[in-house]
Design a protein that fits this description.
Layout: H1 10-21, E1 28-32, H2 39-51, H3 68-74, E2 81-84, H4 95-106, E3 115-119, H5 127-138, E4 144-150, H6 158-161, E5 165-168, H7 174-187, H8 194-203, H9 208-216, H10 219-234, H11 240-245, H12 247-250, H13 255-275, H14 287-295, H15 299-317, H16 324-340
Parallel strand pairs: 1-4, 1-5, 2-3, 3-4
Helix pairs in contact: 1-2, 4-5, 7-8, 7-9, 8-9, 13-14, 13-15
Length: 342
Amino acid sequence: MNNNYYPWFDHVFNQLNTARAEGVLAHALILSGSEGMGKWDFALQLAWSFLCVGEGKPASGVACGQCKSCKLNRAETHPDLVFCQPEEKSRFIKVDQVRAISDFVARSPQTGSMKVILMNPATALNGNAANALLKSLEEPAGNTLYLLIDDRKRTLLPTIRSRCQIVKLDQPGTSQSIDWLEKMTAKNAETYSSAELHAALKMACGSPLKALKLLESKGVEAELKLIGRLGDVLKGKDSVVGFAETFDKHFPPGLEQFLLCQNSWLETMLRYKMTGDEQYFDGVNGAAMLKYLADRNDQRLLFSLRDELNRRRRDWVNGANFNEKLFLENMAIQWQKLMASQ
């Protein structure tokens, strides 16, 4: 069965199992949460729980792992569970994929009383596919559950959202995330200091799975070198062209993580700017430089740069084509402008 268990989903898992037991579970759920939380694994855990037919199923609702349905899930051959995802080399879920689900919806369950459609991510639906799904949601089959994964990109049609129950999957608190990271790194025979764990979590914008990946890939050390190189640009020791040309060599985590890092830096600067509390810089790589820039800039400029970065990241995630080198040069220039402000 699915061994990727995340304790921050326990209360939601229990609520949905209770709703099903009481016969009040909606026919379509949107599992909505930020990236790096484990929504896919949670959706699988939920689907397998609902499909489980074992007499020895735990009271918690977790799939028993022993019944025929669980064995089919383990073999990835369950006839009552279908996945709808972008095809290889595509960023979108296409209309033909959604229409193909119609035959699945029309037939009766083969192992239990329910069928499950897992769509990941629902935000990948193109226009025609979204309209086809909307028609299915308007005429729901009583024995079919739709699980739609949403990364909160706000691109799902409002008409689709209005026909589903929104299940908010909130990020775990810092304490719970750090506890989980300690257990996972210990399991992998790795030892990190509390400061390193907190730095990775902050670098990952609070997403524990991304923080773990950063720890395993030495991403925290890479961020320290990155902000040092950006500092060289601001001091005139390096050029924006040199920064862009050697970016891949000095920052293996890549462009998307650089966007996340910048967003985290700006959020820290803005919190400090609005409260005057220097503790926001505790454990932050490049804290001295970030505080210096925050002190010499109006918060409106910081908000403007943060909004620009968020737009850029949305474009990147959605597959927009742009010149990476020119983009990196532009970002370095934006930080230079903060340095030049009085």
